[in-house]
């Protein structure tokens, strides 16, 4: 039983891999889905079952008879090159979905499943930030279908996250630890996506608010140094004054500054004395 079950699982996975294909098309483009490479003389009947976002419908064709309850311009083309091509004249998000094609021919049938997906270009963004005290360059491609590819001009400690957003679109974030001794302006990422003819190159720049700018850092260092100097000077002054006090107890004459400091008190005493003297 278990072996049968495993075999069934294996076969299912195998057949899914064999017949299921995901195809990406730009919106507004014309798409051709090729169902089989059999020729018309072998074919008895062809059906396309469409499971789209808004509806389910069928298009079928056999010699002398055809049916279509999709009624949206899709048609099975009868060309000599590929006789069972389903043509989607104007790909849009309403046309995205699962397309299952079944061909009945003399001697059997075959089934193919295509997942039709509409290409959506992602929005790209790049910046540098501090993460755990390390400078990290980050490139982001958000809201694209399929997920974008991000590569870097430098090899290094690399992290890439991919997540699916609620609407079937993808967000890809790739971050690279800026290697030591490398000018961060020399680091760039390349984002590739089927919606673009050419790859996009981005240089992650330092983002204000995401990291301390060098100017703020410089000012902070200066303030700290200044405070240190002030503190040291004050300590020195206290020690110096103590020395002066102990010096005055000895026989050396007090320096002039000390005299000036004492003077207001002396003159006050003198004045008081003079007042008393008058009375
Ligand atoms: C699809 O096939 C039709 C003819 O069957 C052709 O005119 C059209 O250009 C094809 N489209 C693509 C995208 O190959
Ligand atoms: C048709 O396609 C199958 C695989 O899908 C291949 O084995 C076979 O050779 C093809 N036949 C022709 C006539 O191209
Ligand atoms: C088309 O026909 C199929 C089966 O006959 C049915 O399941 C489906 O709902 C129909 N779709 C529309 C849009 O009428
Ligand atoms: C498709 O074209 C072939 C000739 O190329 C013809 O024999 C066949 O009957 C056509 N089938 C349909 C459904 O029109
Ligand atoms: C394709 O579809 C879109 C919306 O679904 C429409 O705006 C556009 O005009 C269509 N283009 C053609 C060539 O039919
Ligand atoms: C990303 O790269 C992989 C292999 O490097 C490739 O198979 C895939 O198609 C690429 N995807 C895009 C969206 O360019
Ligand atoms: C930046 O890259 C250029 C060209 O690759 C190289 O000549 C230069 O030395 C690099 N600068 C630093 C600071 O790494």
Automatic annotation (TrEMBL):
GO terms for molecular function: signaling receptor activity. InterPro entries: CD200R (IPR040012), CD80_C2-set (IPR013162), Ig-like_dom (IPR007110), Ig-like_dom_sf (IPR036179), Ig-like_fold (IPR013783), Ig_sub (IPR003599), Ig_V-set (IPR013106). Residues 1-21 form the signal peptide. Residues 28-117, 122-203 form the Ig-like domain. One of its GO terms (biological process) is regulation of neuroinflammatory response. It is found in: Membrane. It is a single-pass membrane protein. Its main location: membrane. One of its GO terms (cellular component) is membrane. The keyword Transmembrane helix applies. The keyword Disulfide bond applies. Keywords: Disulfide bond, Glycoprotein, Membrane, Receptor, Signal, Transmembrane, Transmembrane helix. The chain crosses the membrane at residues 212-233. Pfam families: C2-set_2, V-set. Belongs to the CD200R family. This is Cell surface glycoprotein CD200 receptor 1-like.
């Amino acid at each position: 039983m278990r072996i049968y079950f495993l075999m069934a699982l294996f076969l299912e996975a195998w057949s899914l891999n064999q017949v299921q294909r995901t195809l990406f098309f730009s919106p507004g483009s014309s798409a051709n889905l090729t169902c089989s490479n059999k020729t018309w003389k072998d074919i008895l009947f062809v059906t396309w079952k469409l499971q789209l976002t808004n509806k389910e419908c069928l298009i079928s064709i056999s010699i002398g008879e055809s049916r279509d309850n999709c009624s949206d311009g899709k048609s099975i083309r009868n060309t000599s090159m590929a006789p069972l091509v389903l043509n989607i004249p104007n790909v849009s998000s309403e046309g995205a979905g699962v397309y299952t094609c079944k061909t009945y021919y003399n001697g059997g049938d075959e089934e193919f499943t295509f997942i039709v997906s509409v290409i959506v270009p992602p929005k790209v963004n790049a910046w540098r930030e501090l993460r755990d005290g390390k400078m990290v360059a980050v490139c982001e491609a958000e809201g694209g279908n399929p997920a974008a590819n991000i590569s870097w001009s430098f090899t290094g400690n690399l992290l890439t996250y991919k997540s699916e957003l609620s609407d079937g679109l993808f967000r890809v974030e790739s971050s690279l630890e800026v290697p030591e001794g490398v000018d961060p302006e020399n680091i760039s990422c390349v984002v590739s996506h089927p919606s673009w003819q050419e790859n996009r190159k981005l240089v992650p720049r330092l983002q204000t608010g995401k990291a301390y700018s060098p100017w703020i850092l410089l000012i902070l260092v200066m303030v700290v140094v200044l405070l240190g100097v002030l503190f040291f000077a004050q300590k020195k002054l206290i020690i110096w004054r103590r020395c002066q006090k102990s010096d005055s107890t000895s026989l050396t004459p007090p320096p002039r500054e000390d005299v000036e400091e004492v003077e207001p008190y002396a003159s006050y005493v003198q004045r008081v004395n003079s007042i008393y003297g008058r009375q």
